[in-house]
Each structure stands twice: as C-alpha cells, then as structure tokens.
Amino acid sequence: MAPKRPIGAGAFPKVVESPVPKPPNPDELYAALDLGTNSCRMLIAQPKGSGFHVVDSFSKSVQLGSGLERTGRLSRSSMARTIQALRICQQKLKRNKVTSMRLVTTEACRRAKNSRDFIRRVKRETGLTLEIIEPEEEARLAVISCAPLVSTRTEQLLVVDIGGGSTELVWIDISSVPRRDRPAAIMRLHAGFHPPESPFPAAKVVDWISVPLGVATLRDQFNDVEDDSARFALMSWFFEENLASFSPYQGEQARERFQIVGTSGTVTTVAASHLGLKRYDRTKVDGLRMTSEQIDKVIREYLTLGPEGRRRDPRIGEDRQALIMSGSAILQALLRCWPTDRLSVADRGLREGLLYAQMSADGVLEDGPF
C-alpha cells in the first residue's frame, strides 16, 4: 500500500525574503591607503567595538620603487602603473562616500628625487592627496596595528615590519603594565613613542630603527650575484650588518616573556608555505605562531626549489616570488639576533595602524579586549 501523501506536499514553498543589508553610514567610514615601494593597498572600514569592520579593500603590486636604487628617481612606467591603481582607489572612495581618510606613502617617495612631482601628478590626475610619512610614524603605525596579537604574558616585545623599501623594528617594554592592559597600552602609542603623562599604565619604547633595506631594495643591491644560495647568504649578512646600531638590550633575555611579531608579505607568505596553503587564507595565517625551526625549514625549501621552482610554487604566488628570498634573508637575520624561538605572524600593517589611529583619535573605539 502506497504511503499517504502529506497535506500540502504539492504546494510551492513559501518565499522567505532576507532583509537587504543596510549600507553603512558614510559618516562612520574611514579609509587608509598605504603606497609602498612595491604595493598599493587600501582599506575602507567602520568602527565596531574595539576594532573595525572592513567594508571595501584594494591591493595591487605596482612596483613604484622599480629602478630607484639605480637612478634615485621614480620611473615613468612605475608612476603610470601606480596612478592607474590609485584611480581604482579613488573610485572606491567616491562610491563609498568616504570623507575621513589618510593616504600615505613611504620609503620610495622619501628617497626619490622626483617624488614631489609625482605627488602633484597624482593630485592632478586622481584628486587624491598623498602624504609622505616619516620612518618613526611608519614604525608607530605598524606597532599599533599588531596590538591585538600581543600576548598578556609578554614583557618585552619586538615588532618588525618588513616593507618593500625599508624595515622598521620597535622594541617595547611592557613589563610594568598589568597583564590585561598590555594590548591596550600598545594601542595608546598612536599618540607617539613618547606620549604625554597619562593615568593609564604606559608601554615604554626602549629603542626603534628604520633600516633603509626592504624586500625590493635589498634584492636590487645583490642582483648581480648569480648563485642563488650565495646571494641569499650575502643579503642576510648585509642586513644584519645594518642592524649594528640597534641593540636595545645586551645579553640574553628570558625567552618565555619575549615576543616577536612580524608583519609583512614575507612573513605571511612563509606562514602560508608552512601551512601548505595553495589559496591564501588570512584567517589561518593572522595570529599564527611559528617556531624558528619551522621558519628555517620553509626557507631551506625555498632555496632547494631555486628561482624556477619558486616561480611555479602556488604557495608563494606570482607577485611575491621575485621578492621572497630577500624577505627571507631579512627574517633569518632577525631570528639570529634575538632571543626567541617563536614568531607571531601578523597579516596587518600600515593600513590597519592608520585606521586604528584615526578611530582612536576620534574616540569611536570602545574600551575593552580586541
């Protein structure tokens, strides 16, 4: 006997309409654009609790500093590529009706003889006003972007931002700050490395340095060395030599209370390679802690692959393969110099720091854990 058909079985299903997402209020939006030596990146976000929610973003390799090491000038082709990317950014800012923004550029424009002409051309052709920031502000913004990743057990913190044209290192002492307040104390550095007196416990910047060597500038200095392994060793040695003036602490520090946070495309690429990701996933990379042995293993794999193998490796990516060994040389030099066997990976940097700084200055972020 056939089973009875339930009542209403032949009826059309009832349509459930999900509400249309409410567009964000333009008055609540902030934008941050970071034009570096190699990349042009932008975020548009709105405050949410003690952090922010990203509404729109842009990222493209423009190689603004291509040839800068040799000529001291930004080339016509690199400026044209960059302006094309900036036009897309301008369209996104206009579409989202953003009025609160900071659009900054760093080492390439700090060094290029024709950077002022380039900035005037950007204004004329896109309407965007770029601001060249000094190394100290670049370092400070990188630090506050990493505040959510600082462990409450950390007493000595080294934040490293490996850029295209320069590398910033900031050593911070937070041993006198109560544990639960340590990430917030890092965030308060948005007011400066030596902020005015405050009722809150303060993070102390012991020392900082901006080394004028990043993944692009370091690579360009050793382009004439043909042997892959020899070039890598020379780059790592040369970078370490340039760190000689940065020695905030002499002697061994307690490893369990010391933390290095690394923020850059190099660090996130090494992390993605360690995880075996063929498609990059920020949620798996940001906040990952890698041991020095794991990092060394990935770098040895890169050397074994050679230039052709790295070019074909989907974990590295087309944009990053030409720069991964100079970045790895910097990373290896850093791990030789300081007392840690772990590194915290940060997929965040100048853009996030710019957003946090703007929102903190306007008082729109809530107090509390990140």
Helix content: 25-40%
Number of H- or I-type helical stretches? 13
N to C succession of SSEs: EEEHHEHHEHEEHEHHEHHEHHEH
Please, how many domains?
2
The CATH fourth-level homologous superfamily of the largest domain: Exopolyphosphatase. Domain 2
Largest sheet, in brief, is: 6 strands, mixed
Features:
Nucleotidyltransferase, domain 5; 6-stranded mixed beta sheet; 370 residues; alpha/beta; globular; 38% helix; 13 helices; 2 domains
Q: How is this structure best summarized?
A:
This protein folds into two domains: 26-133, Nucleotidyltransferase, domain 5 (2-Layer Sandwich); 136-351, Nucleotidyltransferase, domain 5. The chain contains 13 helices and eleven strands.
What does this molecule look like?
The protein has 370 residues and is an alpha/beta fold. Helix content is 38%, strand content 19%. A six-stranded mixed beta sheet has the order 8-7-6-9-11-10, sandwiched between helices. Strands 3-2-1-4-5 form a five-stranded mixed beta sheet. Helix 5 packs across helix 13 and helix 7 crosses helix 12. The longest helix is centred in the last third of the chain and has 21 residues, at 292-312.
Write the layout of secondary structure elements.
Layout: E1 30-35, E2 39-48, E3 51-61, H1 68-71, H2 76-95, E4 100-105, H3 107-111, H4 115-126, E5 131-132, H5 135-145, E6 156-162, E7 167-173, H6 182-187, E8 204-211, H7 215-221, H8 228-241, E9 258-263, H9 265-275, H10 282-285, E10 289-291, H11 292-312, H12 324-337, E11 342-346, H13 350-362
Helix pairs in contact: 2-4, 5-13, 7-12, 8-12, 9-11, 9-12, 11-12
